[in-house]
Amino acid sequence: MLYSGPAFSAQALGDGIVELKFDLAGDSVNKLNQAALKDLDAATQAIAKVPDVKGVILTSGKPVFIVGADVTEFTGISAAGGEAVAKGVLGVNQMLGRFEDLPFPKVAAINGVCLGGGLELALACEYRVMSTAASVGFPEVKLGIFPGFGGSVRMPRVIGIDNAVEWIATGSDKKPDAALKDGAVDAVVAPELLRDAALAMVKEAIAGKLDWKAKRAEKLAPVKLNALEQMMAFTSSMAVVGGKAGPNYPAPMLALRSMQESAGKGRDDALAIEAKYFAKAATTPQATALVGLFLADQAVKKASGGWAKKSAKEIKQAAVLGAGIMGGGIAYQSASKGTPIIMKDIRSEALDLGLNEAGKLLSKQVEKGKITPEQMSATLARIRPTLNYGDFKEVDIIIEAVVENPKVKKAVFAEVEGMVRDDTIIASNTSTISISFLAEGLKRPQNFVGMHFFNPVHMMPLVEVIRGKQSSDEAVAATVKLAQKMGKTPIVVNDCPGFMVNRVLFPYFAGFHMLLRDGADFAAVDKVMEKFGWPMGPAYLMDVVGMDTGVHAAGVMAEGFPDRMKPDFQSTTEVLVGHKRYGQKTGSGYYTYAPDKKGKPKKSAYPQAYDLIKGVVADRKEFTPDEIVARCMVPMVNEVARCLEEKIVASPFEADMSLIYGIGFPPFRGGACRYVDQMGVANFVALADQYKSLGKLYDAPKLLRDMAAAGKKFFG
Fold first, then answer.
1. 347: part of which helix (H) or strand (E)?
2. Other C-beta atoms lying within 10 Å of the C-beta of residue 426
């Protein structure tokens, strides 16, 4: 053994070849944390001192190659400020430069996931061999940054500017065929042949059959395009990338500017430029928020994993009560992930609708080449439509998805409870009604939980698992396990009207309705809130949700929280519902809708809406964008804080991810808690106090006031 450290070891293989193996101690994956990078440098210097070394193969001792840098270290690094960040990445690049400059060829054997910093280390080798089971890429833009360990310098020199821009600016993973086609790797082989292929390649380089010095020189020199060609390549790229990224995601454009400025430089000068732009990206609020989201996602997965471990129950057979679009979506999701499901309704027409919904979703996957027709048939075979309870004794969990009416739901629960085993879990897909209330009258309330899917089921990642007053840990845990098996992100919340997501969404709608009451134009409000980062403004969202559904849910919330959610005025949405304008599903609401070329509803201005709501709104008044944002967002954020106060949701991590996954909270803002942190808790409380005259929705709760007084934050 030439070297042995906590992350890297160097072993002589004979014929002057050394295997440098990355096998991070105490971790299931390899990641380039600060300790691992220092160990890499120590291993590099140890190899450099060994006489007669002729070549190196870089391998992994784990099923993955390298997942990237250690994101958990990022927050502390970025908090140090731009100058410190730039200095830090330059230090890492000096280490990678010493590895790259070893006076012999190096071949990376990429056996699994190779992302971010892992790919940057592989690029410091002259050659890369990739397993057919591996994937490579630069996902950094998804964290608000871009490759800062030499990736934005070496990649354009290896695969060309156009390809490098696409790899770096989109952040997408690449499969072996695409990586080979673009020139990011030099060979693709079966997993069992990978190590031998890397050895064969380094031997060919040592023998002079491969010109490894030319491969290295290519990375050390400026990009092989003249100034005019560079200008054309970057100008066209900036137009495309800028249009897609928009103003709220600066990292892709900062990456392009770095690549453009450094293209005419040698490696070391180019790396200094990369460090400067990387520091700019790393210290943006977007980077802080997006890295925070990544960490929040990990925390949520850890929390749900903890719940899942509490249950030994395996859900082998599921059932859904109520077909239609929602029931069909749930059936599709269960069947597509391998769990057979019975779909029961009282009408054959509803069963047909549910089966058609599942078939439509599967057909789209066949058209896109994601599944075969045989796989589609197998999935549909796992959905068993029925008009009776004949096979319900074999069911492990029942998901109720009938009409959002407590009397109907209670009648269904009372009926089905007598048709199933004593250990069968019954889960309600209600979006607003208290689980504890719905459990009243059940013989086995400990087996009853909420399992709130979001529409459309196949697209929305969140499932709220709601724990009623009598729900058992076993029932909650088994439901979490099923949600995970269905490919969803479950978050366990305690019971209250609206649970977590809808409870905080309706104060947002209330702020919107008060704005309209006071003279705001709904189209102007939508425009401001979409610029704030929401995928659609509140009027458009209400149209998409269905205004009759929205009015019904608002009534449930008003009954549950009358002190702040029971309005003393008639809302514009209620007026439109009174005129049978329910939004997209009826072709008109706040906007009017007509099918576009693809058959999807496209909105346009609906002047009649203004006439219909005249009686409940003040004369038109202009509000500043800041006023509109404050009046919509303050009620939502206050309600999130109340949910944390009341322990409806366990942590700020889970609160933020609920909003991101459930209703599309702007990811670059990181969620409601991160939004408050970045504004400053005291500043948010002061903002809320400006609008206290509008009612209790705008009164910052005790949690926020205490945090402001103590100078505390939700994170860090």
1. none
2. 26
Lowest mean pLDDT across 104-108, 240-244, 459-463, 541-545: 240-244
591 neighbors 543 (Cβ within 8 angstroms): yes
**Number of Cβ within a 10 Å radius of residue 297:** 17
Q: What are phi and psi of 362, to 5 degrees?
A: -70, -40
Cα separation, 413 vs 415, whole angstroms: 5
pLDDT value at residue 226:
84
Task: Tell me how far CA of residue 384 lies from CA of 317, 345, 347, 407, 416, in angstroms.
Answer: 11, 11, 14, 27, 17
Q: Are strands 425-428 and 397-400 parallel, antiparallel or unpaired?
A: parallel
Annotated catalytic, 458?
no
Round to whole Å and give the CA distance between 254 and 276: 10
DSSP-assigned letters across all residues of 274-320 = HHHHHHHHHTSHHHHHHHHHHHHHHHHHHHHHHHHTT-------EEE
CB–CB of 110/130 below 8 Å?
yes
Read out DSSP for 157-182?
Answer: HHH-HHHHHHHHHH--EE-HHHHHHH
- Tell me how far apart the alpha carbons of residues 652 and 704 are, in angstroms, rounded to a whole number: 13
Chain segment 636-667, per-residue pLDDT in tens: 999 999 999 999 999 999 999 999 999 999 99
330-352 burial, b if ≥16 CB within 10 A, otherwise e? Answer: bbbbbbbeebbbbbbbeeeebbe
Contact (CB, 8 A) for 645 and 637? no
pLDDT reading at 75 higher than 80: no
Q: At what angle do helices 285-308 and 473-485 cross, to 10 degrees?
A: 120
Tell me 583's DSSP state: B
Residues 6+ apart with CB under 8 A from 516: 522, 525, 571, 572, 613, 617
Whole-angstrom distance, CA of residue 562 vs CA of residue 195: 67
CA-based nearest residue to 249, from 276, 227, 281, 217: 281
One-letter amino acid for residue 503 of the chain: R
- Evaluate whether 514 touches 693 at the Cβ level (below 8 Å): no
Task: Say how far apart CA 148 and CA 145 lie, in whole Å.
Answer: 8
pLDDT tens sequence across 154-163: 999 999 999 9
273 token code pair: 């430029």
What is the largest distance, in Å, between two alpha-carbon atoms of the chain? 90
Q: How confident is the model at residue 310 (pLDDT cuts 50, 70, 90)?
A: very high
Looking at this protein, which amino acid is placed at residue 99? F
Q: Say what the pLDDT of residue 235 is.
A: 86
Catalytic residue among 452, 513, 552, 579: 452
* CA 716 to chain CA centroid, nearest Å: 21
pLDDT value for 80: 79
Q: At what angle do helices 522-532 and 501-517 cross, to 10 degrees?
A: 140
For Cα atoms 663, 668, 673, give the angle at the middle one, nearest 5 degrees: 70
Coil, strand or helix at 336 = helix
CB of 225 closer than 8 Å to CB of 233? yes
Residue at token pair 């900062």: 254
CA gap 360, 357 in Å, rounded: 5
Q: How far apart are CA 550 and CA 530, in angstroms?
A: 20
pTM of this structure: 0.91
Alpha-carbon distance of 93 to 100, in angstroms, equals 10
For residue 457, what are its two tokens?
């089921």
Distance from CA of residue 296 to its chain's centroid? Answer: 10
Give the Cα separation of 616 and 572 in Å (integer).
7
Contact criterion met (CB below 8 Å) for 576 and 613: yes
Determine how many CB atoms are found less than 10 A away from the CB of residue 401: 28
Strands 318-321 and 187-189: unpaired
Which helix (DSSP H) or strand (DSSP E) does residue 418 occupy?
none
Q: Two tokens at 127?
A: 């050659």
The token pair that represents 344 in the structure block: 């029961």
CA distance 136 to 93: 20
Contact 284, 253 (CB under 8 A): no
